[in-house]
């Protein structure tokens, strides 16, 4: 299955412009998006209706997104997680993958980078 139709993507970021960027790109690909501006909202959203994919910022008002990944992978193993962070160091990338991230994107984000990442994961067997 590809990332189209009824697939839902959760964008977790406290910067509204980042959420808007992702939603515009995903909308053009016919992918439904929802937002959360902190980890508490993200947990509530995932529990209510698990998304196929999460774009997860690391620096959030109520904690580090990277520390949220093990919870997601344990409780929602079919949900893919893409870590998004301005801390684009080798150590951060390594830690994100150790925690279970499926992909890692460093900021600043570009249209091309987001689309390439989506193309790389579109063939995963994502839940609807």
Describe the structure.
The strands form two sheets. A five-stranded parallel sheet has the order 2-1-3-6-7, with helices on both faces. Strands 4-5 form a two-stranded antiparallel sheet. With 128 residues, the protein is α/β, with parallel strands linked by helices. It has a single domain (8-120), classed as Rossmann fold, CATH 3.40.50. It has helices spanning 16-28, 39-48, 69-75, 90-99, 111-121, and strands at residues 8-12, 32-36, 53-57, 59-60, 63-64, 80-85, 103-106. The protein starts with 7 loop residues before the first strand and ends in a 7-residue tail after the last helix.
**CA distance, first residue to last residue:** 9 Å
CATH class group: Alpha Beta
User: Architecture in CATH?
Assistant: 3-Layer(aba) Sandwich
Tally of discrete structural domains: 1
* Low-pLDDT sequence parts: 1-5
Strand order of the largest sheet: 2-1-3-6-7
Q: Any idea what the radius of gyration is?
A: 13 Å
Secondary structure category: alpha/beta
CATH topology: Rossmann fold
Question: Could you state the CATH homologous superfamily?
Answer: Response regulator
Sum up the overall morphology in one term: globular
Characterize the largest beta sheet: strand count, sense, and whether it forms a barrel.
5 strands, parallel
Instruction: Bin the helical content.
Output: 25-40%
Which helices and strands, and how do they pair?
Layout: E1 8-12, H1 16-28, E2 32-36, H2 39-48, E3 53-57, E4 59-60, E5 63-64, H3 69-75, E6 80-85, H4 90-99, E7 103-106, H5 111-121
Parallel strand pairs: 1-2, 1-3, 3-6, 6-7
Antiparallel strand pairs: 4-5
């Amino acid at each position: 299955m590809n990332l189209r139709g009824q697939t839902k993507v959760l964008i977790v970021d406290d910067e509204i412009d980042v959420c808007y960027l992702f939603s515009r790109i995903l909308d053009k690909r016919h992918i439904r998006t929802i937002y959360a501006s902190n980890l508490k909202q993200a947990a509530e959203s995932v529990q209510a209706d698990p998304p196929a994919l999460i774009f997860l910022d690391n620096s959030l008002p109520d904690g580090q997104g990277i520390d949220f990944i093990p919870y997601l992978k344990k409780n929602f193993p079919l949900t893919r997680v893409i870590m998004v962070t301005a801390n684009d160091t080798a150590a951060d990338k390594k830690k994100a993958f150790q925690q279970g991230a499926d992909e890692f994107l460093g900021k600043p984000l570009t249209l091309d980078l987001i689309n390439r990442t989506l193309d790389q994961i579109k063939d995963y067997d994502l839940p609807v």
